[in-house]
Amino acid sequence: MNLPPVAAPAGDTGTVRPVVGLAVGRGTGPEVADVFERVLGALTAGLPHGVTIERSPRLYHSYQSLRAERDVARIQALTAEDADHYERFCRTLAARGTRAIFRTAVNAQSLYLVRQRLRSVKVDLLTGAGRSLLLVRDQAQGFYTGDNRHTHGEVTRTMTFSREITEAVVTYAVRRARREWPDGPPDRIVMAYKFHLLDGALDAWVAELADRLGIRVGLFQPDTVNRDLITHGLPDRTLVVAGNEWADIMHVMLLDRFGSDRQESRCTENVCLDPGLSGLVEYQTVHGSADDLAGRDLVNPVATIRAAALVAERHAGCPGAVGATERALRALDERGVRTPDLGGRHSTSAVVDALLALLDAPRAGGAPKGDALVGES
Questions:
Q1: For the chain, which terminus, N or C, has the lower number of CB atoms within 10 Å?
Q2: Rg of the chain taking only CA atoms, in angstroms
Q3: What digits encode the pLDDT tens for the residues 105-157?
Q4: How many Cα neighbours within 13 Å face the side chain of 153?
Q5: For the domain with range 130-258, which CATH number is right: 3.30.2350.10, 3.40.50.300, 3.40.718.10, 3.80.30.20?
Q6: Are 107 and 257 in contact (CB under 8 A)?
Q7: What is the pTM of this model?
Q8: Domain limits of the chain?
Q9: CA dist., res. 47 & res. 28, Å (int)
Q10: Per-residue b or e along 276-300, where b marks 16 or more CB atoms closer than 10 Å to that residue's CB
């Protein structure tokens, strides 16, 4: 299999101040953004050159804020405006050399328009019970992408699948799997798509690609993947490439099956495959905008904390940031420092304050000290 390696995101070890993008949506977005800035600032405090956060000037809509418009044409126009603005923001930062953006939850319809244009895939490595699964969600094509045309009492949604995008997604997924499991190829590659609706085109593309790359790929209907998961489970080091129609729904179930985090505490990354984006990575929380919690200081900050640690370690030259942050989070959990959704009684700010108190002063090179936390884990 002749595939070029995927380079791991590298932190900036030079004197140039790294730039991290920040895009904020409504609902709890401003509170989540504040958590991200505080934690990233603490983790990178020891850097000699610091980190610059470039925030998008637009506050993007959530689904609930759009629904308040109560007019389909107005909602459609605002959705398009948000998508166009965020796409420009991503492309502008990428052209300047920025490699990471953190985005809070925004309206899904706007978001998927951008993911289609930037050819994004969502990547999540799930581990638990001695097994690991790499989930690569195809967000660049399919039923979640496309455009709506409204007539009286009817919405017509038009979307596409293409050979080019299918090849880009599968090729990236295989390269990424080789990076996650460098000692050998994945034991199994599973693709979960509604390919029976596409006149045999998708399975023909996949068969040709698998033959060209010298890999074995099983293309299955989503219900078949579910049945196998229930009956047999999935073996260790399974690579799952899936359309959003299945992966969006099943993500939380796979988290549960592999004994990983709850959805509310999970962050993931979206990798842009458009050649003009130079591998720009967008980090996000898995949870939504939680508009009902806006302004109440009750949103669970754990996913945002984890995203800040990933950005610090991968893109700001802070080795050890993820490990130290995870030890601090475990210590907080043992002490019962949690928001109400996790059965605790602490506010968002209280959890973040407690976390920052556990993270010692950064050591040389930018990573926070973790030794003091070893006994807490």
A1: N
A2: 21
A3: 999 999 999 999 999 999 999 887 778 899 999 999 998 998 899 999 999 99
A4: 0
A5: 3.40.718.10
A6: no
A7: 0.88
A8: 17-118+264-377, 130-258
A9: 29
A10: ebeebbbbbbbbbbbbebbeeebbb
